[in-house]
Specification:
- There is one protein chain.
- The chain has 21 helices and no strands.
- Helix content is 69%, strand content 0%.
Length: 524
């Protein structure tokens, strides 16, 4: 009885501490309500209006706005539920015709607060992942996830709902780590019905669950396979069944997978295709100077428009199927490891690697998708110094790659301070965590007769000279883009600052992909 009371007291203490962390983050998010928001704000307002005003059979056919519904049905249902609260607050929010580009304070506060409240799912996901960790690691993970500047910039300034979706992902990972594979598969299937871009990790889930959950002998394994299949079918039937009934599944899939948008997003995500495009342009210039007749592409990759991808001048053309094959090839070593040795403690690392592959080699990747692998990597970053070093630089590069999304002058100090404070806090937290671990290990060694001297500097040194040079490089790129380029070149070559950000951040993303692949091959 006394032990049970102690357990309940410990859980209560953890919950109170976690709510303090969440409360501080929520206060910052509320203060950011009047800040800049992108066209995604109007996208989601329109989705509130169309799901509220139109019958379900017309949701994926609606063209009253440019911002047509292109998320899976569960997200559409989510908007439908929110629309009833929106109508109570201000009926014009859900006016499908008269509400276009509606920007009153009521809609701004309502939509901003729905994102803050939906982050409770992220809070629960973090709680489940950290409830069994030692206090230092638990608090460290809270810092890395709940105070992530990338999440704040994308969700609470630019405007999206990544927090609650990543919360579902973390819930799924927590179930898998606990050995509750059926619940892990159920939660991930539900996540795919909210946002299909998370499907990049589906091969990892399939291989892991097949090997770890279903591969249990002929009779038992077949039963488990049927059970897992039934769970997934039930989830997808609940999401897509009504649209199958109305004969609209082809239209839904067409909206969800608009491959005509081109290889790159308007602002180049920092991935492999940045290097590919630059190589193509460089080769074209060199070959022209050598007298060869090389035709320049008709359209520019830096036009800022969403449309068909322009042709390459020298290198082979890239199609969606090419990127799909490249992602699968990059992912295959991880899948082999997951099949050979399906360890629950490796799940977060494998899932993060899958999203890294999708980001680095995928088709029409948005820069915001870096959150898909940075947040799961926070789960493993608290385990040892090598993972902490890797995460520290990667989180900085990922957040910095999001800076061009918030381009108005009044928000500039905010995004700089968010990244700066997070970097300092992360540095101090990692240093305290791993210095403490090193000191404890050395104390145990000394008691056993070891006489080795403890060097605390090594345990808190998160980056070597290469990392320091990289951080100074980010500072240099930012100074050039914000101050020197406008002063020296004015309106000439306006794409260069964005290009430099993409290239410089892509270098770290490429290093992270290689680092993760090496770790998986050697240690999993």
């Amino acid at each position: 009885m006394e032990g049970q009371k102690l357990q309940e007291h410990a859980k209560s203490t953890i919950s109170r501490q976690l709510f303090w962390f969440f409360g501080i983050a929520a206060c910052i998010k509320v203060l950011l309500i009047p800040s800049y928001h992108s066209t995604d704000f109007e996208v989601h307002r329109h989705w509130l209006a169309l799901t509220h005003s139109l019958p379900l059979s017309q949701w994926y056919f609606d063209e009253t706005s440019l911002w047509t519904l292109d998320y899976p049905p569960f997200f559409a249902y989510y908007e439908y539920v929110l629309s009833f609260f929106a109508q109570l607050i201000d009926p014009k929010i859900v006016d499908i015709h008269g509400g276009l580009n509606y920007k009153s304070n009521t809609v701004i506060y309502f939509q901003r607060l729905t994102v803050v409240i939906s982050d409770l799912v992220l809070l629960y996901g973090v709680y489940r992942l950290t409830k069994t960790l030692e206090p230092r690691k638990r608090i460290l993970m809270w810092v890395l996830v709940l105070w992530s500047p990338g999440l704040i910039i994308v969700d609470h300034m630019h405007f999206q709902y990544n927090g609650f979706l990543l919360g579902m992902l973390m819930l799924s990972i927590s179930y898998l780590q606990e050995g509750r594979d059926l619940m892990g598969g159920f939660t991930f299937a539900a996540l795919l019905c909210f946002k299909h871009l998370f499907a990049v990790a589906a091969p990892v889930y399939f291989v892991y669950l097949l090997r770890h959950y279903c591969w249990q002998g002929m009779l038992r394994g077949f039963g488990r396979l049927l059970m897992m299949g039934a769970v997934v079918i039930v989830v997808f039937t609940a999401a897509y069944g009504p649209f199958v009934y109305h004969g609209q599944i082809q239209q839904v899939l067409h909206r969800m997978f608009p491959f005509g948008r081109g290889l790159c997003h308007a602002y180049w995500a920092p991935n492999f295709w940045v290097f590919y495009i630059i190589l193509d342009k460089g080769l074209a210039i060199i070959l022209r100077k050598l007298g060869l007749n090389i035709q320049a592409p008709a359209a520019s990759f830096t036009s800022g428009l969403v449309g068909d991808s322009p042709s390459f001048a020298v290198l082979p053309q890239i199609t969606p199927s090419t990127t799909f094959i490249m992602v699968l090839l990059a992912l295959s070593p991880c899948l082999l490891k997951a099949w050979k040795n399906p360890q629950p403690q490796m799940v977060a690392r494998w899932i993060a690697y899958a999203y890294t592959c999708g980001f680095f080699f995928g088709w029409h990747v948005h820069e915001k998708a870096s959150l898909h692998f940075v947040i799961p990597l926070a789960i493993v970053a608290v385990q040892n110094l090598d993972d902490a070093k890797h995460y520290f630089l990667l989180s900085i590069a990922s957040c910095y790659s999001l800076f061009p999304l918030i381009y108005e002058a009044q928000e500039y100090p905010i995004k700089v301070m968010l990244l700066l404070l997070y970097s300092i806090l992360t540095w101090l937290s990692f240093s305290a965590q791993f210095t403490k671990n090193a000191a404890t290990a050395m104390s145990v060694s000394s008691k056993k007769g070891g006489g080795k001297k403890l060097d605390l500097r090594g345990s808190s040194n998160l980056i070597g000279w290469v990392g320091k040079c990289y951080i100074f490089g980010i500072v240099a790129v930012e100074i050039w883009g914000q101050f020197l380029h406008p002063y020296l070149l004015g309106d000439k070559l306006p794409f260069v600052p964005l290009l430099l950000v993409s290239i410089f951040c892509a270098l770290e993303i490429m290093y992270s992909w290689i680092w993760q692949l090496r770790w998986i091959l050697l240690y999993s």
